[in-house]
Input
Amino acid sequence: MSPFLEAGRNLGLDVTISSFSKITFQTLDGAVKVKIEDRDLRTFDVVYFRLVGKRYEDAALIVAYCRQEGIRIIDRIYEKDGVIRIPLPKSLEAKMLFEAGLPLPKTYFGSLMAMREVCPVLLGFPFVIKGTTGKQGHAVWSPQTLEELDNLIGELLPKEKLGERFIAQEFIRASQRNRIFVIGESAVAALTRPTRWRKRFNSHPTGVKKKLDPIPSEDAQIALKAASVLGIEIGGADIITEDKTGKKYILEVNSAPRWASIARDAGINIEEEILKYIASL
Output
């Protein structure tokens, strides 16, 4: 049984699990009714997208219909005008976080050749380059020299010509990365993991993997504000703390974090927590 169906049964909630491939509509009788598995979406109280992936067209159709019929959508970002794709590209996400006054690493967005000219001076070596649509830690690089940067740009230019975009950020010397899991207005769990490049500056880079209990209050505040700014109600915010200064930085808010590790390591039933929140709306 799906974990969501089991959680719904435990909580006494009517839960339907489906996929974008089950969405249909027909232009009949003067009205369009968008259905999922032959059930009109207007019969639902809340619609929650676990993950959109590349199904932007399907998601846009559902969002338009839900807004038309007054059906609540999670996350709230889908209710905003001007939203083209979810998850937001990292370039737009970084812009929104910075403008909200959140502690974001110094960031530059432009072409790869523009990065080559600007970033060695603006950010210094090493710095970080990310694909704007990368997920789960993929599409992230950190050149340490101009030669490494040139080699990396050579590898990435064909991707850029096909439409992929990249952002650059300063390299923060933080040995650990904390993921704060947010549901609504609450930080419900937190895990800490070692960062990828900690061996560059940490002479004892063993790394720590564990549940954070209690959740660091400053991390929770940053995570909740970041999620609110982006219109994300259910997600995981990644926060790092610079080793020497103790200064904190928000890296991103992932609207589809890996639940299995959170449930296993934090010891909570993620599906039940999400359904409790949805039922409270």
Summary: The two ends are 25 Å apart (CA to CA). The first helix runs from residue 3 to 11.
